[in-house]
Structures are given as structure tokens and as C-alpha cells.
Automatic annotation (TrEMBL):
Listed InterPro entries: Ribosomal_mL43, Ribosomal_mL43/mS25/NADH_DH, Thioredoxin-like_sf
Origin species: Gossypium laxum
Organism lineage string: Eukaryota, Viridiplantae, Streptophyta, Embryophyta, Tracheophyta
Keywords, ordered alphabetically: Mitochondrion, Ribonucleoprotein, Ribosomal protein
Residues passing through the membrane, by range: none
Domain Ribosomal protein/NADH dehydrogenase: 18-91
Official protein name in the record: Large ribosomal subunit protein mL43
Any GO MF annotation of the entry: structural constituent of ribosome
Subcellular location: Mitochondrion
Family affiliation: Belongs to the mitochondrion-specific ribosomal protein mL43 family.
Length: 110
């Protein structure tokens, strides 16, 4: 997601194994969907990384120095594309639990 017109995700690393069965979906994703994902997101640096013997995952690096890792083992290429777009649309902030349903900058003085 863009915060004031600036996309927050700056780098996406696609890690996979060229032999393992759990990486079958991500290998199909790289053949079919990854090129169109790169073309639709020119602001994003997409890097593929071969790691043998490990389950595949997507790792996103954000401008606020945070990173998110999503395991995509045994997923279809459509599901992997969904997770990649979720990483792209996220702001990279940590999840904060709200104490009340009503959030205000000026709490009541009563």
C-alpha cells in the first residue's frame, strides 16, 4: 500500500528449492505469474533465491526497516500470488492491539 504516494515494500525475495516437492507450486508461480507481477510493480525489486533443502517462502523488506516472512510450502501459484500482493499492499508496521474500539487523539476529560 502506498503511504502518501510512496510504496512501502521495497524488496521481495522469493526463496525456493529446485528439487523439493513442497516448492512445486512456487516453481510454477515463477514460470507463469512472476514476470507479470514484476511488470505490474516496477517500483518493487523482486529477487529469486535458490535455497536447497528448505521450504519455500516469500520475504518482504519494507522502508521502515521491518521485514515479513510468509511460508508458501505446498501452495498453488494463485495462492502465492495472493500472498505476494498482500505483502506488497501491507505497510510493514507491527500489529498493534487496540485497547478500546474508539481511538482518539484527544481523550475525554470526564
Amino acid at each position: 500500500m502506498a503511504l502518501r504516494g510512496v510504496w512501502q515494500l521495497k524488496k521481495l525475495i522469493v526463496s525456493y528449492c529446485d528439487w523439493g516437492g513442497s516448492s512445486r507450486g512456487i516453481r510454477a508461480f515463477m514460470e507463469s505469474e512472476l514476470l507479470t507481477f514484476k511488470e505490474k510493480n516496477p517500483q518493487l525489486e523482486v529477487v529469486t533465491e535458490l535455497i536447497r533443502g528448505q521450504h519455500p517462502h516469500l520475504k518482504g523488506f519494507y522502508k521502515n526497516k521491518n521485514e515479513r516472512v510468509v511460508c508458501v510450502k505446498n501452495m498453488t501459484p494463485e495462492d502465492i500470488l495472493l500472498y505476494a500482493t498482500r505483502l506488497r499492499n501491507a505497510l510493514g508496521r507491527k500489529v498493534v492491539k487496540l485497547k478500546t474500539r474508539h481511538v482518539t487523539k484527544h481523550p475525554s476529560v470526564q
